[in-house]
Specification:
Layout lengths: L2 H16 L5 H8 L5 H7 L1 H7 L26 H49 L16 E6 L7 H16 L4 E6 L7 H10 L4 E3 L24 H8 L2 H8 L6 E11 L1 E4 L14 E4 L3 H8 L4 E4 L2 H9 L5 E4 L1 H6 L8 E4 L4 E9 H4 L4 H35 L3 E4 L2 H8 L1 H5 L1 H4 L1 H17 L2
Parallel strand pairs: 1-2, 1-3, 6-7, 6-8, 9-11
Antiparallel strand pairs: 3-10, 4-10, 5-8, 5-9
């Protein structure tokens, strides 16, 4: 029922109440001509049944309102007759006025509601990925970016990002501010990749392992013992091969700026010392969710147990896994020495950690600001790598002081045990990619002789 029909229905009920005690024949004969009977019955169908007298038990059915009655039946008082006429006439002429009044009230409300719904949509179109995206800088409000990573505030990840943020803010005159969130505050590494793609997070530093799902250029860095030492690894990453890797993920809205690093990864466990590759047989070793990493430990006879870094400490403490593998700075800053007894200096994987900025954030920068970002990233990279070298030496000594048993291993023997992984993933990575890295390493070695 529309609002107009509802008003007519209410007025109809009122009229029935007024005429409830009137004689039906008198009302009809006084108010309408005989030709009006059909109009009245059609417009107020409820009136006849509501105002008709009830049938007495054993008596004849009373005459209905609209049945023809005699001329002498009209005995309604004049006042009541006048009131009835006014009510009926108001029903006939009032709907148009009410409709106009309703339209006058509804239209401004509808316009206000439409404006309230349209404005947020327009704002969302300006910032395509939602309200989390920063707005353009003004004289009073700088452009603010959010950067996240998964490690502790005292790890070189965080310290390097803080140095980068300070350089950017200084060289842009405070126009750009970068807030750094450690300890998975903005999510896991996979979460951060997704958030960068959507523009919800602006920057990150992550390991290459989860990037293998998006670009095979990064898979080559996951091969065991691909780099003989940190110096060689850094030269390769800072050259054309590393730059090509950074550019390989632009199609997923991520711009690579430089390579931080995590250092070489080592095995720890709570069961026994691991010196030879066979010592790892049967141990449940937590790895990243990376096929090459998992296959490398399967080649040793170990049981790789992939899980997120955020779950790792609890899993070690509850003995859901026997061990894990990470660089020395992470082993120390994450306090794995509290739940692990043995540390083997295997150095089986080198962990480069690229710095990315979301394409949505990158497009907010002027050409001059983009140059500042790249220069600041290179300077922060050098600072971060120095911290890795410094902490690797200092924290290894601290781990021994805290009671961990640290063991050296023969890396050539470990490489031999893991070498089948190269053949297994050659087609996935691309033989030409592997060969290019090996040739670059060979050329660097010859140049240093």
């Amino acid at each position: 029922m529309s609002r107009i029909e509802h008003i007519e229905h209410i007025e109809h009920i009122k009229l029935v109440e007024v005429l409830g005690n009137a004689r039906p024949g008198a009302f009809r004969r006084s108010l309408f001509l005989k030709g009006d009977q059909k109009f009245f019955a059609n417009k107020f169908p409820l009136l006849e049944s509501a105002s008709a007298p009830r049938r007495k038990k054993g008596g004849r059915e009373p005459r209905r309102i609209l049945r023809h009655t005699r001329q002498g039946d009209c005995q309604m008082p004049k006042l009541l007759l006048t009131l009835a006429m006014v009510l009926v006439l108001s029903l006939i002429f009032r709907p148009a006025q009410v409709e106009a009044q309703i339209e006058a009230q509804v239209e401004p409300q509808a316009e206000a509601q439409v404006e309230a719904e349209v404005e947020p949509q327009v704002e969302t179109q300006v910032a395509p990925m939602g309200t989390d995206s920063p707005s353009s800088p003004t004289a009073d409000a700088p452009l603010t970016f959010k950067a996240g990573h998964t490690l502790s505030p005292n790890h070189p990840y965080h310290l390097g990002m803080l140095r980068f943020a300070a350089l950017v803010e200084e060289r842009t005159g405070g126009q750009i501010v970068i807030e750094v969130f450690p300890d998975t505050e903005l999510g896991s590494e996979l979460d951060l990749i997704e958030s960068l793609q959507m523009g919800k997070v602006d920057m990150t530093v992550i390991s290459t392992a989860p990037l293998a799902a998006f670009s095979r250029e990064f898979m080559v860095y996951d091969l065991p013992f691909i780099f003989p030492d940190a110096k060689t690894a850094r030269l390769v990453l800072d050259g054309p091969i590393g730059q090509k890797s950074l550019e390989s993920v632009q199609n997923i809205s991520m711009i690579g700026l430089t390579f931080f690093e995590n250092g070489f990864r080592h095995v720890t466990n709570s069961v026994r010392p691991v010196v030879a590759p066979g010592d790892a047989k049967g141990l449940r070793i937590r790895t990243m969710e990376n096929r090459i990493h998992m296959a490398s430990f399967e080649a040793l006879g170990a049981v790789p147990t992939p899980m997120s870094f955020a779950e790792l400490y609890g899993a070690l403490k509850l003995s859901r896994t026997d061990g894990q593998e990470n660089p020395i700075p992470i082993i120390y800053t994450s306090k794995f020495f509290e739940v692990q007894k043995y540390c083997s200096l295997t150095g089986h994987f080198y962990s480069p950690t690229p710095m990315f900025i979301s394409l949505y954030a990158w497009e907010k920068l002027s050409d001059e600001q983009k140059l500042i970002f790249r220069q600041a990233a290179d300077e922060a990279k050098d600072y971060q790598r120095e911290l890795i070298d410094q902490q690797s030496a200092e924290y290894l000594a601290e781990l021994e002081n805290l009671g961990m048993e640290v063991t050296e291993v023969d890396k050539a023997v470990w490489l031999e045990a893991m070498e089948p992984v190269y053949k297994r993933f050659e087609l996935d990575i691309g033989p030409e990619v592997i060969e290019a890295v090996k040739n670059e390493i060979k050329n660097l070695a010859e140049a240093n002789q």
